[in-house]
Amino acid sequence: MKNCLVVDDSSVIRKVARRILEGLEFEIVEAEDGEQALDACKRHLPDAILLDWNMPKMDGYEFLRSLRKLPGGDKPKVVFCTTENDVAHIARALHAGANEYIMKPFDKEIVEAKFQEVGLI
Amino acid sequence: MTPQDFDYLRQLLRQRSGLVLSAEKQYLAESRLLPVARKHGFVGLAELVAKLKAAAASPLSVEVVEAMTTNESFFFRDKVPFEHFRLTILPALMAARAREKRLRIWCAACATGQEPYSLAMSLKGVGPALAGWRVEIVATDISTDVLAKAKAGIYNQFEVQRGLPIQQLVKFFSQVGEAWQIAPEIRAMVSFRALNLLNDFSSLGTFDLVFCRNVLIYLDQETKIGVLNRLARQMPSDGFLVLGAAETVIGLTDAFKPMADRRGLYVPNTPASKAAPVSNVLRFAVKA
């Protein structure tokens, strides 16, 4: 079973994402901000990361840049999932090493399509 | 809706579009046609059907057919046909048409345009190998409403997130408010036309490749056979036909035959194609 780290400061979003991803047979670990997520990745690198942009302490963009510098940090497939829905943010995310990008609001079909796109399903 | 009214609608749809509406699809007719009835200020579907009966050849009947035809579509739908396009069809046709450098592609039920635009984006991805080529994509649909949307090339956030890789979104789309519009150079590659597949389409000319996906499933046996046989007459012996995942030519016509190991891909079954092209196609596919 593949595992996915869901990083979002909203407990509602984490709950929705968990339900969708468990339905796609992922094991879920949750983090509330970039710092927690980075600690989790230092302990164990997940197969996938569903990543919010705006969060307290460390945002998704900074987390991604730090993740990619970790040993083996290029392995996890990172899918942003954010309300930052403009081309400039998308381009920055891709440049920093994001694999896919979901613009909120999202549904199961979109998450499934994006995870398929990066070969996670 | 009374059973008599529903029967009348089923008959009308079958005659006009070939659409076969099974008896249990009354809910679908009601949900799709109530907005049409409201738009015209009718009290309910009974009044709508009464107006249709009074003038079956009216613009209202066109609206009814359009409302009932399924328009679901998304970019790179099902993935596999687009892999066939990139890895099998294009290499074969580019080798076969190397002298004239001309290709004609037809999307025979393009709905809101995602399929022809996906092909256009794939062609852009080929790069310099297609420099100097004249590639024409003709996209048709029975519904003028969906064609208007297709021509505009404007899609909402949900539509661009179903099937379209994010790199392609950034590369080929620009933001228009909350929506996304496909680039003018991609729109310019596709010409859209209204067309009912039940009518004669020989004036469109011949096509090296026909995408006719998720149309036949809505048609009755006899209509399917007719459409396939007429498609075959619009294609050269080394052309390609792509059908939907739930569709086939088997048991319907000998005009096409399936390509081995290429699900959904068919080639004309002419004496010429029996002699050579299939093996050629496979050879080019291996090279690609």
The arrangement of helices and strands of chain A along the chain is EHEHEHEHEH
Structural class of chain A: alpha/beta
**The CATH H-level homologous superfamily of chain A:** Response regulator
Number of helices of chain B: 13
CATH class of the largest domain in chain B: Alpha Beta
CATH topology of chain A: Rossmann fold
In spatial order, strands of the major sheet of chain A run 2-1-3-4-5
Shape of chain A: globular
Low-pLDDT sequence parts of chain A: none
The total of beta strands of chain B comes to 10
Shape of chain B: globular
Query: How many structural domains in the coordinates of chain B?
Result: 2
Average pLDDT rating of chain B: 90
Radius of gyration of chain A: 13 Å
Question: What Rg of chain B do the Cα atoms give?
Answer: 20 Å
Main sheet: strand order of chain B: 6-2-1-7-8-10-9
How does CATH name the architecture of the largest domain in chain B? 3-Layer(aba) Sandwich
Note the gap between the termini of chain A. Answer: 11 Å
Helix content of chain A: 40-55%
CATH class descriptor of chain A: Alpha Beta
Please specify the SSE layout and strand pairing.
The complex is a heterodimer of chains A (121) and B (288).
Chain A: E1 2-7, H1 11-23, E2 26-31, H2 34-43, E3 48-51, H3 60-69, E4 77-82, H4 87-95, E5 100-103, H5 108-117
Helix pairs in contact in A: 2-3
Chain B: H1 3-17, H2 26-39, H3 45-54, H4 59-68, H5 80-96, E1 102-107, H6 114-126, E2 134-141, H7 144-152, E3 154-155, H8 157-160, H9 166-172, E4 173-176, E5 179-182, H10 184-187, E6 190-194, E7 209-212, H11 221-233, E8 240-243, E9 256-258, E10 265-268, H12 271-275, H13 277-287
Parallel strand pairs in B: 1-2, 1-7, 2-6, 7-8
Antiparallel strand pairs in B: 3-5, 4-5, 8-10, 9-10
Helix pairs in contact in B: 1-4, 2-4, 5-13
